[in-house]
Design goal:
12 strands, disordered N terminus, alpha+beta, 8-stranded mixed β-sheet, globular, 12 helices, single chain
């Protein structure tokens, strides 16, 4: 009798298992075949955007040859940043790589080709921020580091600080083994002639040319060169924002500052929350423009706050750039913005902004005018 009951329980249990398995198979079949990463909320296509500054006179006087040169430079920087992301690299590495290319390009006001303070020296600023951890690093008024953006990252990763400035930052750069260069490396004749014209227009004397640069062209040649070029880079910056395949964000900004500024002046680029900000919860932002107004508005962080409150990245950027910024007399500039999903966006209230972007699955998009 006990044996019969045991066999009956076994038959019933086997029947229950078969019924359960069949039901599960029917449910899976009805739902369709499994597709990897089918849940869009769990996928993160990589994307990157860069900028090379915003302004007015550049676009008023730009000829075809100059436009082509800027286009090629932006394309090169974008390709370097995109290559990092295509190889499943980090957003932080991508923005640093792209900005380093722009720092080496004398067309842009960052690194080589930086603007000059009133004493004739280059004082360079940079910042970088990791959206995954909110870790950030920045430097201001550095004179000898070839890539200020890499020094900003070293501050973030190898000190307990967020910001270092002046001689202390330069000394830390040397201790970190970062490449150093003399003032003549950062000097470009084009930028010096812009600087000299601004100094004369404001009634200030033009200081001696940096050591190692050599004599410049004669007064007539200088005036002709400046007039033919037609550019006036009173301010500007370069920057990048990116999202990697893991969905993490990063932002980086670098600048040579404002032409003819008082020595020691610092703009928005190295100030976390003003010209640079990144958080995986909202967005990554890099700005360019008149730094004093970005600082007063903590503009980069405000863009992210608006995104957190439900605005789209484009709505948030446009509100700050086209409403809040120009409400302050003299407030002009632009931003690039990257969110955890979707394409990168940009907004500017100037005549133009050098900018470019690329997303996973699509080709590069570059805008000079």
């Amino acid at each position: 009798m006990v044996g019969m009951m045991t066999r009956l329980r076994s038959v019933l249990y086997t029947s229950f298992l078969l019924t359960t398995l069949c039901t599960a198979r029917v449910a899976v079949y009805a739902a369709g075949p499994a597709v990897p990463n089918a849940d869009k909320s769990q996928t993160h296509g990589w994307a990157i955007a860069i900028h090379g500054g915003a302004g007015e006179s550049e676009w008023e006087h730009m000829d075809a040859a100059t436009e082509s040169a800027y286009h090629d430079s932006l394309a090169k920087a974008l390709a370097v940043g995109s290559a990092v992301l295509k190889g499943h690299g980090k957003a932080l590495d991508a923005v640093e790589a792209a900005v380093k290319v722009l720092e080496d390009d004398p067309l842009f006001n960052a690194g080589r080709g930086s603007a000059f303070a009133a004493d004739g020296k280059n004082e360079m600023d940079a910042a970088i921020m990791d959206g995954a951890t909110l870790a950030a690093g920045s430097v201001a008024d550095v004179e000898f580091t070839r890539h200020p953006i890499s020094l900003a990252r070293a501050v973030m990763e190898h000190t307990p600080y967020v910001m270092m400035v002046g001689p202390g930052a330069d000394e830390f750069s040397r201790a970190q083994g970062l490449e150093q260069q003399p003032p003549s490396f950062f000097f470009t004749e084009m930028r010096w002639q812009e600087f000299a014209a601004i100094m004369r227009a404001s009634g200030r004397s033009v200081p001696a040319r940096p050591a190692g640069v050599g004599p410049g062209p004669g007064p007539t040649a200088s005036a002709a060169s400046s007039e033919a070029h037609g550019f006036t880079h009173r301010f500007g910056a370069v920057g990048a924002v990116a999202r990697d395949s893991e969905g993490h964000l990063a932002a980086a900004t670098s600048t040579g500052g404002m032409q003819g500024k008082m020595p020691g002046r610092v703009g928005d680029s190295p100030l976390i929350g003003a010209g640079t900000y990144a958080s995986d919860r909202s967005c990554a932002v890099s700005g360019t423009g008149v730094g004093e107004y970005f600082i007063r508005l903590t503009l980069a962080r405000q863009v992210c706050t608006l995104v957190e409150q439900g605005q789209t990245p484009q709505e948030a950027a446009d509100r700050m750039i086209h409403s809040e910024l120009p409400a302050l007399k003299g407030g002009e500039g632009g931003v690039i913005v990257m969110a955890p999903t979707g394409e990168p966006v940009w907004s500017s209230n100037t005549l133009g902004m050098f900018r470019a972007k690329e997303e996973e699955g699509s080709g590069p998009e570059i805008h000079v005018k």
